[in-house]
Amino acid sequence: MGLENSQSPSAVGAPGFLRPGTRPESAGDTSLAEAVSTLRKRRWVVIAAAVLGLVYGFYKWVAQPKLYLASSTIQVRNGASNQYKLQADYDYGDDSQTRMNTEVLILESDTLLDTVAREKNLANNPDFITLSCAPKCRADDPAVRTAVLDTLKSNLHIAVIPRTEMMTLTYSSLGSRLSAEILNQIIGDYIHRAFEAPVHQTEIVSDWLSTDLDELKGQLERTQEQMLQLERKLGVLAFDSKNNQMQSSLEQLLLAEGTAKIARINAEQRYLMLKNMDPNTIDESIETTPGTVPGELNALRSQRAQLQAQYAQQSTTLGPNLPRMKAMQQQIDELTRQITAEHTRLETQAHENFVAAQKTEQATQQELDAREAQAYSQGDEMVRYTLLQREYEQNRTLYDALKQRLETAKIESGLGATEVDQVDKAVPPISPTVLSMERLVLTNCAFFLAGGIVLAFFIESLDTGLHGIQEIEGVMNMPSLAVIPRARRPSAEQVATMSAVQRNLSVLNEPKSQFTEAVRSLRTSLLLATTGRPPKYILFTSATPSEGKTTTASNLACILSQADARVLLLDADLRRPSIHHRFGLPGKVGLTTVLAGAATVDQVIQRVPEAPNLDILPCGPVPPFPTEMLSSDTMRTLLERLGEEYTYVIIDSPPILSVTDGIILSRYADAVVLVVRHGKSNRNVMRRTRDLLVRSGAPTAGLVLNAVDLNSPDYYNYYGYSGYSYGSMDGGTWETQSASEGRPQ
Predict the structure, then answer these.
(1) What is the pLDDT of residues 208-250, one digit of tens each?
(2) What tens digit of pLDDT does each residue of 514-543 get?
(3) What is the rounded distance in angstroms from the CA atom of residue 685 to the CA atom of residue 690?
(4) Pick from 139-143, 589-593, 641-645: least confident
(5) According to the model, what pLDDT value does residue 412 have?
(6) What pTM, to 2 d.p., does this model score?
C-alpha cells in the first residue's frame, strides 16, 4: 500500500471515509427534536424561570392593592331630529362606529380629565395619588398635572357595546366613594361639553360673520350713495335709454370677443396637435378642420396597408426582383409619398385656420376696445353707474345670505348638540375587586416560562461548546468511529501489583470493561473504514493537547495485537513524546535516532511482554527541527519498510492546531483518526481543525469521542452497555453477556 495519498481536498467527504447521509452543519437545519434536546440541556434555566414565575405571581396576588371598581352606562345619540331644523341634513354615509370611537377619545381627552381633576382636587387626595408635594399640590404644576392625568387614564376604562349607541365606563381607585364620584364627574363634564361645544362653535362663526357683515354693509352704503349721485347728475329717463343702448352694444361685443377667442384656441390646438403628432396616428376621430375628417388620408392609408399586406404575402413565394413585386413596391412608395403630402396639406390648412382665427380675435378685441373707449368718451358716468349697480346687487345678495345663515346658526346651535343620557349612574361598590390567585400565578408562570425558554435558546446560541456526538458530527462533517468512556482508575492496592503497561493500558487490566469494549468497537470501525482492505497506516491526532490521542492509540494497538496481527506503535510526537513512559520503556533511542542515521530500526524497536504481538518504536531524543525530520525522504523510506514487516502501523502525532507535524504525517497514512475529548473542544476549534484536514487532503476516517460519561442523558445506552452483565468465575459463577452489539473477535 503506497504512502502517498491522492485524495483531493474533498477527501474527507469521499466514499469510504464518511457515513452515508452525513451532511455539513447548517444554521437553518433545526428540528423539533433539536429544540427538545436544547430544552433538556438547559432545563434548569426553564425550571428556574417557571418557579420564579410562580413566586412572582403569588407575590403579586398578595401585594395587589384592594381597588374599588365603579361602573356606569351612558347612551350617546345624534342631535335633535331634522324636522326641527330650518334646513334638513341627510347624511346617508354616517358611520356609528366611527362616531362612538370619537366620543370615546373625547372622554379620554386631557382637557376633560384635567377639568375633572381640578373640580375634585384629585392632586391632594391621598386615596387617589400620593405626590411628593402633598398635602398641598398645585394643579398648574406640569409634573403634578402629568401624574394626575396618567393616573386617571390608567384607571379609566371605556367599552363600546357593539351594535348600540351605548358605552360602559369603569373606574377603579383605593376609595369606594371616590371611584363613583370621579366617574359621575367625568360623565357630568362630558354631558356639559356636549351641549357647550356647538354653542361655542356658533359663537366663533357668529363673530366671523358679524365682521364680514359690517364690512359688506359699509360697502353697500357707499355704493348706493355713489349711484344716487350719478342719477341726480344724469337724470333717470335719459340715463335709462342711453344706458340700455350702450349696454346692449357692449354685451354683443363681449360675446363676439369670447366666441373669437374660443375659435382661436380650438384652431391653435388643432394645429399644434397635427404638427407634433406622428402622421401614422391620425385617424378619423381627429377633426383637422371643424366638421371635417381626414377621409382622403385614411383612404390612402387603407390602400397602402392592403398593398403592404399583399406584398408581404407574395414575397414568401416570389422574389423581390420580379417586375410584379417591383411595381407593387413602387405603388407602396407612391402612396407613402401621397400620405406625407396629405399630412403636410392638413397641417398647412390647420395653420391657416389658426392664423385666421387669431386675426379674427384680434379684430374683435380691437373693436371692443374702440367701443369701450367710445362709451367712456361719450359718458363715463353711465358705464360707471352700470358697474356700480352690478356691484351693489351682488353685495346686497351676499349680505342677505350671510345674515340669514347667521340667524339659522343661532337657532340650530342647540338642536345639533350631541345628546348624552346617563342610563346607569355610578354607585360606590360594596367590596373591592381583586384578581384571583390562580389567574395571577398561571399568567405570570406562563410569561416567565416563555422567557425562560427564550433565555435557554439564547444561552444555547452563545454556547460554543460541543456536548453531544451529533453536534460534533455536524460541525466536523465526519462520522464518529467510537465513543470511549472514561477509564476507571485502579485502586492503590491494584497499582502496587501492576506493571507500568498494565497501569496505563486499561484494555489489559480490565478486558471486560466498557472502556475495552469501546476500543474494540473502534477497531471494528477502523477495519471497515476503507473499501477493499483494512488500513495499514493509522494516524491518531487531535485538535489541541490533552485530548487523549496517545491513550487511544496505545489501547487500540494493544487490541489489534490480540488478533494475531503484528502491530507497531510509532511515537511520532517529536515535541512531547510520552509512549515510552506509558509502557515503562527507555527513551534514549528511537525514531529520531533512526532518522538521524545513528541507529537502525531493529536496534531501537522495543517489545512489551504483556502484548507479544505489539512492538514499540519510541520517539527518542527530542530533535531541534522535528518538522524537517518528519517530512524527509528517510521518514518515507522507514514507513515503507515498517509497512512490509507489520500488519498495522499505529502512529501517534502532535495536535494539528499546535504544529504542522500531524498534517505532514497524514500524507503517509491510510486512515486519520481525530480524537476529541468530551467537554473540552468548542465549535471554533473543531471548525478550524476540519478546515485544515480538508485543505491538506487527509484521508480522515472519522472521529473518536473520548472520556465520555455514559451515564449522562446524552450518551446513556449509546452502545447498549446497560444490557451487559458480567459474572465472576469465582464460586462457580459463569460470565454472562448480553449486548446489542457483538464483540469482534
Answers:
(1) 667 767 777 777 777 777 777 766 666 544 445 445 566 677 7
(2) 888 888 989 998 888 777 788 999 999 998
(3) 9
(4) 139-143
(5) 59
(6) 0.47
Alpha carbon of 661 to those of 123, 542, 568, 634: distances in Å? 81, 12, 19, 15
Nearest to 674, CA basis, from 579, 552, 525: 552
Widest distance between CA atoms in the chain: 158
620: left (phi over 0), alpha (psi -120 to 50) or beta: left
Q: What is the 3-state secondary structure (H, E, C) of 525-590?
A: HHHCCCCCCCCCEEEEEECCCCCCHHHHHHHHHHHHHCCCCCEEEEECCCCCCCHHHHCCCCCCCC
Residue given cell 380691437 in the structure block: 366
Residues 637 and 688: their CA atoms lie apart, in Å, by: 31
Residue 644 sits at φ, ψ, to 5 deg, of: -75, -30
> Any idea which residue has 349612574 for its cell?
425
- Counting every residue written for the chain, the total comes to 745
Asked, as a colleague might, if the bond just before 135 is cis with ω within 30 of 0, I would say yes
A 10 A CB-CB count for 218 gives 10
- Rounded Cα distance, 546 and 49, in Å: 37
Question: CA dihedral in degrees (496, 502, 504, 509; nearest 10)?
Answer: -100
pLDDT of residue 718: 52
**Rounded Cα distance, 533 and 527, in Å:** 8
Our CA angle for 670, 573, 510, nearest 5°, is 80
- Model confidence at 647, pLDDT cuts 50, 70, 90, reads very high
Q: Which residue has the higher pLDDT, 262 or 168?
A: 168
Grid coordinates given for 123? 392632586
Domain coordinates in residue numbering, the chain? 11-22+477-490+497-719, 32-64+435-462, 234-414
Q: How far apart are CA 704 and CA 673, in angstroms?
A: 7
DSSP string, 266-277: HHHHHHHHHHHS
| 645: Cα separation from own chain's centroid | 65
Task: Kindly tell me the sign of the dihedral angle through the C-alpha atoms of 466, 471, 472, 475.
Answer: negative
Average pLDDT, whole number, for the chain?
Answer: 76
Sign of CA dihedral 375, 377, 382, 385: positive
Which residue, chain included where needed, has cell 390602400? 303
* For residues 359-369, average pLDDT: 78
Report how far residue 666's alpha carbon sits from residue 698's, in angstroms, rounded to the nearest whole number: 6
The span from the CA of 199 to the CA of 417, in Å, is 8
Say whether pLDDT at 285 is over 90: no
The dihedral built from the CA positions of residue 389, 395, 401 and 404, taken in this order, carries a sign that is negative
Mean pLDDT computed over 487-510: 70
Q: Write phi, then psi, for 488 (nearest 5 degrees).
A: -75, 130
Summarize the confidence of residues 315-320 as an average pLDDT.
72
Three-state DSSP at 189 gives helix
Residue 432 amino acid letter: P
423, containing H or E segment: strand 419-424
pLDDT at residue 435 is higher than 50: yes
Rg (CA), the chain: 53
Please list the residues that pair with 474 across neighbouring strands.
Answer: none
Give one DSSP letter per residue of 42-111, joined into a string. THHHHHHHHHHHHHHHHHHHHH---BEEEEEEEEEE-SS-GGGSSS----TT--HHHHHHHHHHHHT-HH
> Hey, what CATH topology would domain 11-22+477-490+497-719 get?
Rossmann fold (3.40.50)
- Cα(550)–Cα(578) distance, integer angstroms: 8
* Count of other CB atoms within 10 angstroms of residue 500: 15
CA distances from 425 to 170, 179, 417, 433 (A): 11, 12, 22, 19
DSSP structural state of residue 618: -
Cα separation, 308 vs 319, whole angstroms: 15
